[in-house]
Design brief:
Number of helices: 2
Radius of gyration: 22 Å
Strand content: 5-15%
Distance between the termini: 51 Å
Strand order of the largest sheet: 1-2
Number of domains: 1
Order of helices and strands: HHEE
Shape: elongated
Structural class: alpha+beta
Largest sheet: 2 strands, antiparallel
Length: 81
């Protein structure tokens, strides 16, 4: 392979990887009502904080038992548990 072909091949690979990284970092927002209707069922509820943001939580299990709080990380959901 000549140097020119190596540079061309490397540039193409780099641009493909860059395109994939940029595409994966774009956040496609889902409408709020769609999320609420899909996930806020049964034991689900929302807690509104002082700054106006809302936290979705589920309260399940034995009400007389010990409390276990599970907090998922960024981009996770309650289905991780």
């Amino acid at each position: 392979m000549t140097i020119k072909k190596i540079i061309k091949f490397s540039t193409i690979i780099f641009l493909l990887l860059l395109t994939v990284l940029i595409y994966n970092s774009v956040y496609f927002d889902i409408p709020k009502n769609e999320i609420i209707s899909k996930h806020a069922k049964g034991a689900s509820d929302f807690l509104e904080l002082a700054d106006g943001s809302k936290i979705h939580f589920r309260d399940e299990g034995n009400k007389d038992g010990e409390v276990l709080l599970l907090v998922h990380g960024f981009n996770g959901s309650l289905f991780n548990y």
